[in-house]
Design brief:
This protein is an alpha/beta fold and 230 residues long. The protein contains eight helices and eight strands; from the N terminus they run βαβαβαβαβαβαβαβα. The relative contact order is 0.16. The chain has a single domain, classed as Copper homeostasis (CutC) domain (TIM Barrel), CATH 3.20.20. The protein has helices spanning 14-23, 43-52, 72-84, 103-112, 130-137, 155-167, 189-194, 217-227, and strands at residues 6-11, 27-30, 56-60, 89-92, 117-120, 143-148, 177-180, 199-202. The chain has an eight-stranded parallel β-sheet with strand order 7-6-5-4-3-2-1-8, covered by helices on one side.
Length: 230
């Protein structure tokens, strides 16, 4: 039997989380303020979502729009509060002013998570050198996933990069799971699956009414059907 592809859905609140789980999502990315491309939710929201669903939950650690770390010590405090609220998995990633990885900030935050699993998010798509970033981050504890479209412009633009990185999986710096998201559409799925990619991330695609509306269990179920349900 083939391995089940991971379907991760962006959730803003309990209503989204419950609908995503009902539709067959494997994991949630919990954020707030999608006008800023997703910021850190409150501890109260984390606790409420954790109480409402039993699928995996990754919580965004990002305090402002953009990819600079900002106040790292505040990030560390917030991470502690979110862990107390029930968060056990996270999403973050920071670049320096030259579009290189801000290794000091990433290491500081990863260190206080004490081995919690985490995703380096789409900051990789804005990095000056993706391969160098992967090499620098390769041994950080807990890092098991890169959320990426392959390019800043989305999956249409980044598909060749995604396929090339998928073919390198298992090499040094490429051990982590590719979680494809950012302009991802159902028609991309067959070629990504054929390349061995087994992680898919949707936000707007789970919301037929746009970001002003909730996650649709039916829309999530359609993605689950296309991805397969072994």
């Amino acid at each position: 039997m083939s391995k089940r592809a991971v379907l991760e859905v962006i959730a803003l609140d309990v209503e989204d989380a419950v609908a995503a789980q009902a539709g067959g999502a494997d994991r949630l990315e919990l954020v707030t303020d999608m006008a800023a491309d997703g910021l850190t939710p409150s501890a109260a929201t984390v606790a409420a979502v954790r109480a409402a669903v039993d699928i995996d939950l990754r919580v965004m650690l990002r305090l402002a729009d953009g990819f600079a770390a900002g106040d790292v010590e505040r990030l560390v405090r917030v991470a502690g509060q979110l862990r107390e609220a029930g968060a056990e998995q996270f999403v973050f990633g920071f670049l320096d002013p030259h579009a290189g990885v801000d290794l000091a900030a990433v290491e500081r935050v990863a260190g206080v998570l004490q081995g919690c699993r985490w995703t380096f998010h789409r900051a990789i798509d804005r990095a000056a050198d993706r391969a160098a970033l992967r090499k620098q981050l390769g041994d950080l504890p807990g890092l098991d996933t890169y959320l990426t479209a392959g390019a800043a412009g989305g999956v249409d633009e980044g598909l060749p990069t995604l396929l090339a990185e998928a073919w390198r999986r298992g090499e040094q710096g490429y051990e982590q799971q590719l979680l494809v998201g950012g302009g991802l559409r159902l028609e991309h799925v067959p070629v990504l699956l054929d390349a061995g990619i087994d992680g898919f991330h949707i936000g707007g695609a789970a919301r037929p009414g746009g970001w002003d509306g909730p996650v649709s269990a039916e829309a999530v179920a359609e993605w689950r059907r296309v991805l397969g349900t072994p």
